[in-house]
Design goal:
single chain; alpha/beta; seven-stranded mixed β-sheet; 40% helix
Length: 186
């Protein structure tokens, strides 16, 4: 008897650089799912440019979407919003981590809470995050601390997500699941 098809992923992490197409990919993935659509926004509109970005993202979503803002309490929002019959999209973890650091919260502790919330998600969950380690080394201690914390957060969440996709130039590349690598040198 043939084995049943694999279950669809419940937790998807979408990584990429700035303007890579990761948010578009994540939204398309969410819209391919049945049920209610919930967008958890982590951005805060501190200036006109950010207000314009937020407005453009909102305009990209149609009436099927409900938006919840969670610039800091993301783990709680995920716990409350995930469930059967709905797909939750979080955009983005990079802004959330920045908010966390600027609020003088411990990024390791906050990241641990987020990891637990992602693992316990009761329905489909899509997370968007920047892969910030591909650029220049930041020249300030805060910049380096942020880059390091973001790298650790992405690694931690990749461990608990069923699928990880990297988007570059609008092209998605599947990172997880991946075939086992032969690490033998001889």
């Amino acid at each position: 008897m043939p084995s049943p098809p694999p279950a669809p992923p419940r937790r998807l992490l979408v990584l990429g650089g700035a303007r890579s197409g990761k948010s578009r990919f994540a939204q398309d993935a969410a819209e391919a799912n049945e049920g209610e659509k919930v967008y958890i926004a982590t951005a805060q509109a501190f200036d006109d440019e950010m207000r314009d970005r937020i407005a453009r993202h909102r305009a990209d979503r149609d009436a099927r979407w409900r938006t919840r803002e969670a610039p800091l309490d993301l783990a709680e929002a995920i716990a409350q919003e995930t469930g059967p019959g709905r797909v939750v999209l979080v955009d983005c973890l990079t802004l959330w981590l920045s908010n966390t650091l600027l609020a003088d919260r411990d990024p390791g502790e906050a990241g641990g809470g987020l990891r637990r919330a992602v693992r316990a998600a009761r329905g489909p969950l899509i997370l968007v995050s920047n892969e910030v380690g591909h650029g220049l080394v930041p020249d300030t201690p805060l910049g380096r601390a942020f880059r390091d914390a973001q790298g650790r957060l992405n690694q931690d969440l990749a461990q608990v997500c069923d699928r990880v996709v990297f988007v570059a130039a609008g092209c998605p590349v599947l990172l997880k699941p991946s075939p086992a690598l032969d690490m033998a040198l001889a």
